[in-house]
Write a structure and sequence with these properties.
heterodimer; A: about 170 residues; alpha/beta; GMP Synthetase, Chain A, domain 3; three-stranded mixed beta sheet; 3 helices; elongated; B: about 250 residues; mainly alpha; Ferritin; 10 helices; about 65% helix; about 0% strand
Amino acid sequence: MSPAAGYVADSADAREREVMRVLADVADPEIPVLSIVDLGIVRHVKWDEHGRLHVGLTPTYSGCPATEVIRESVRRALNEAGYTDVVLEEVLSPAWSTDWITPEGRRKLQAFGIAPPHAPANDARSPKVVACPRCGSRDTQQISEFGSTPCKAHYRCRSCLEPFDSFKCL
Amino acid sequence: MNEPLLRYLLRLGDTSLVLGQRLGEWIGHAPALEEDLALANLSLDFIGQARLLLTYAGEVEGRGRDEDALAFLRDPQEFFNLTLAEQPNRDFGYTIVRQWLIDAWQLEVYEGLLRSSDRRLADIAAKALKETRYHYRFSSGWLVRLGDGTEESHRRVSRALDDLWRFTHELFTPDEVDEQLADAGIAPRLQELEPRWSARIDETLREATLERPQSVHYPWHGKRGQHTEYLGHMLAEMQYLQRAYPGAKW
């Protein structure tokens, strides 16, 4: 759909919301239930004086292999929505934090079977209790601080005996 | 071109790259699946940090070399990583000791770089520091478990510590590049970081029931491009594809 179809973007805010709606459909390639907006990695959407659209994205982890896939998906989604003159910018500062995952993103993680970040990022030095995303039990155990992707740790539930991933606090 | 800044960025970036490559050598060989994943995750973080630092280094150099050109097309004497980072993996305990010593060093360096007058470097450090914190939790946790573990695990990490300790002298011994950057407010003064590193190391050693080896001044200086024989072999493997098939892409 073109941004102008049935909708006239008459202010910067409205234009921005339109772009955010497009970005809200771009899935994280490793956790596809989450969009990049849920993940909190879209840092800015703005236009320069030449009418070029600038989108700022921040990497979650320095070495996250999803970063490049995400850039391509964003470019494709924006192109398909009619935004052809797009500049993607990498924003490093302030460094991404799991505190930026939206409430909606946290709900989606939980429903997908991944425990959302269990504490504010500045408490991350002392791991707290992680509730099992399947049965809700708080009788869980960390198996490893590392999992299938940089952002997840590996847990098991001692009540329902299922293993599960927990989104690390960063 | 700001030559000292370029050299400093290559030191940090090469240390991360070389250590990341070493950790990657464990994939499929670690003692347990969880540790295999852990070491691979660490490797990924280090390579990610290396990319940010080497990309910046390439821009400072201004000769059009990107992260890949710097990683794959330089010879050993053009690498400026810490000598400690290039030491071979040997056994799991040896890898953990190497990791723990470098993680503790990075904690201090990145913390100090948060106040760097170079904004971009401060941003990279802030990002990396978050990762270094859990790297340190992993490596110090394993050091305690192995040191205070069985007779065999204790023996192995003691030996690794004795073997690797001589490379720690380089971590906090500044040369003219370190001094110039400290004077410019870009990098922290290495001598000022040493006491905190030392205190952290001693605390974990006590918990791990290990003894701190005596200081030895090791004459090699990876950060000045003088390396042990191990780096060349590692690079030969790491760079093979780009050297044999220049410009090859996925």
